[in-house]
Amino acid sequence: MFDSQPQILNIMKSKLLILILSITFIIGCSKESDQELIQKNSSEDVLASREQPTSGDTFCTQVDLIAGQNYDSGNVEVAIDGESLLITYTMEGDWTLNVSHLYVGDCSERPANKSGNPQVGHFPYATTHAQGTTSYTYSIPIATLPNCLCIAAHAEVIGPSGNETAWGEGLPYGGNNWAMYFQFCLDQCGS
Description:
This protein is an alpha+beta fold and 191 residues long. The chain has two domains: 1-42; 48-188. The chain has one helix and eleven strands. The protein has one helix spanning 4-41; strands spanning 48-50, 59-67, 71-81, 84-91, 96-105, 125-128, 135-141, 148-159, 162-168, 171-172, 180-185. Strands 1, 2, 3, 4, 5, 6, 7, 8, 9, 10 and 11 form an eleven-stranded antiparallel beta sheet that branches. A hairpin with a 7-residue loop joins strand 10 (171-172) and strand 11 (180-185). The longest helix has 38 residues, at 4-41. Residues 29-56 have low confidence and may be disordered.
């Protein structure tokens, strides 16, 4: 009986070492993925972001920003300013913008999992907004975009009903959810 105790201790030590190495590997991979996501969200494609659109901006199209599937919390507006496409989240009433995620590009490249559900963490543009934010504009170089594209505007908003998920109104994104996107062609908008 005494001879088997060192063997049991060695087996336990080996299993503990494997467990520690596995956890270290998983944590290392997670940190790498988070770093890649941070780098992607700070893309050089976004030349500028502004809290307010300039007074000269004329919006080409506008869709409702639907919160919690039932509330009109504001608008998503699209404009062209020189060589930039401007996407503006504008809140209405008592609604404020907490976080925004934006995909603008080729419709076939919209980030989605195998089931077709959107992966907003993989949208190339994302911002956490200061408390009380009611408007925010992303500025994206037109040269990086196809003429006809998809815009998936996601937000975490706060309103009279509390915290809600919101989407720019449009076509169903896919998968088992109520996410939406809308289509836009650059030549729809005079620059």
